[in-house]
Amino acid sequence: MSDEHETPIKTPKQLITVIVLSFVVPILIIVLLVKYVGAGKRTGAGSQALTAEAIESRIRPVAGFELVDANAPKVYKTGEQIYQNQCAACHAQGVAGAPKVGDTAGWAERLGTGLSALVNSALKGKGAMPAQAGGAASDFEIARAVVYMGNASGGKLEEPEPPAAK
After folding, report:
1. Which pairs count as long-range contacts for 154-157, CB under 8 Å and 24+ apart, including other chains?
2. In a domain, 60, yes or no
3. Which of 3, 5, 93, 146 is the most buried (most CB within 10 A)?
4. Which domain holds residue 127?
5. Which SS3 state, helix, strand or coil, does residue 112 take?
């Protein structure tokens, strides 16, 4: 009898050990490979959302403030500044029926009603235009913007007097 045809497993205990190891070793290798591959730094969509710069840019509109001296004289914006900040969104292009600045025909009838009627429309809203033209400017600043738009559209409106200091 030759030894070359003999099996290395000679007892049932050795057979059970080989069967258990044939299941455990591949599973252990797979688990270790998954841990190795998954251990790297992950950068996916939206991974920049929690950077310090991204967080600061999101809270800046809410957390930002401007320190102003209560005793300092009020500095009013010009009519052109108010127009650029609030009115130009509609009046530059004639959006939602708003008369375009510079269109003398579109402003002629409105200018005929007078400054107080135009300012009243801007403060209380008219048509698709919201009250106070959608912003947080003072009544005086809104009146200045109305004068600016009216005069740029062929009117000859006088600049309103600033309100008396309190």
Report:
1. 154/104, 154/107, 154/108, 154/111, 155/107, 155/111, 157/111, 157/115
2. no
3. 146
4. 79-152
5. helix
pTM over 0.70: no
Measured on CA atoms in the order 48, 50, 54, 58, is the torsion positive or negative? positive
Residues 85 and 137 in one domain: yes
154-158: long-range contacts at Cβ-Cβ below 8 A with a sequence spacing of 24 or more?
Answer: 154/104, 154/107, 154/108, 154/111, 155/107, 155/111, 157/111, 157/115, 158/115
Q: SS3 for 126?
A: strand
pLDDT greater than 60 at residue 1: no
pLDDT of residue 127: 74
pLDDT score at 114: 78
Q: Are 139 and 160 in contact (CB under 8 A)?
A: no
Longest dimension (CA), the chain: 125
As a whole number of angstroms, the distance between CA 142 and CA 155 comes to 17
Q: What is the CATH number of the domain that holds 91?
A: 1.10.760.10
| DSSP secondary structure letter of residue 41 | P
Helices (H), the chain: 12-38, 52-63, 79-82, 88-91, 104-112, 115-124, 139-152
